[in-house]
Request: fold
Amino acid sequence: PAMPWSDIQDELRIPDWMHWYEHLAEHIQVVRYDGRGAGLSDRDVDELSLETDVADMEAIVDAIGAEKVVLFGIYYSAHVAMAYAAKHPERVSKLVLWCAFPSGDDLKTGGSQAAAFQSLMELNWEMFTETMAHTVFGWSEGDPAHRVAEYMRKSASPEVVKAAWGAHDKVDMRPTLPLIQCPTLVLHRRQFPLVDVSAARELATSIPNAQLAILDGASLAPYIGDMEAAMDVMFRFLDVYDIDHRDRDTHHARRETSSAGFRTIMFTDMEGSTRATQELGDERAQEIVRRHNRAVRSSLHAHHGEEIKHTGDGIMAAFTSATQAVECAIDIQRRVAEETSLHVRIGVNAGEPVAEGGDLFGTSVQLAARVCSQAEPQQILVTDVVRQLVAGKGFLFSDRGETALRGFEDPVRVYEAQWRETA
Reply:
């Protein structure tokens, strides 16, 4: 449950929330329960603490009868999931943490903002839930956030919320993190207002077998915003399906029977992948490649790019929109910088490639590959045609002059797309 609020019955009446559960249940068995003092559970409780929450989870897992489970912990309930995983490593196969944080000190709601929330909760419960829902789930969401506020009022009392907050704000999970043995996925929203991305990075670096995925958006609800991107990353981690093979025949047939038309082509290239294989060995080096692939594919999904092929050290992709291609390239560099220690080169060009055998060929593709090879690590280079196509879209470019490219008679003018937020 998303403590301190939970109500299974009302959750299923919120269409987007129901869609989240339905999509999950297409691939895995989903088990949900209401937290102590909330929803359909007994409302009159004497104690709310991390220990009682773990005891409740122990009872649920025992009742399921499964040999092992995957735990999904969101915000406060992530503490419970982490504590259970450390205490019962034999019962947890994998752990997924969403917008989680090591301790109450990591919350941005400290000081005056926390005091304001507490005062508002005591003065006007309805106004408090509306404010909380729109702050946490997004003020731009309107009706969805309002429905969540109604759900919050029904699911728990002010007394339970206050007691649960007080208990979990005092929790410090840092001593527990190194004890978690199972593979762990730390998912976080880049613009989430209550917890900074740095808290997610700390979790990912402190849990021994953890990986980090930063998704765009500000909402605590995984079903608000780009739900498909969240599902994609999570299902890859859980090995629910292999997107490399999913719908391959459909995509292959579509490319075989239609002209490629005008496309923006993007190449990514990892720095030092050959050296990594020599220094780390095949298995560890391949895990680095997988991290790159996950970051690139998540960005492609978010920006409507089509993966054409894996090139060994990178990925070739195509877009029908030059704007989406540049946005995707920027997103890839940010994801890779935040989620891995890799450095990636990216090259982008636009033109009319030739489609054949599920692949794209021609001068426009060759030029994109050559531009990528000219890029420095952590750099995005685009051709002049791409820069002109996205003029007025708010991108910042630096002129890198004309460069001679192998196989091209005339020098090509390239521009660097700025992706660092401080640039």
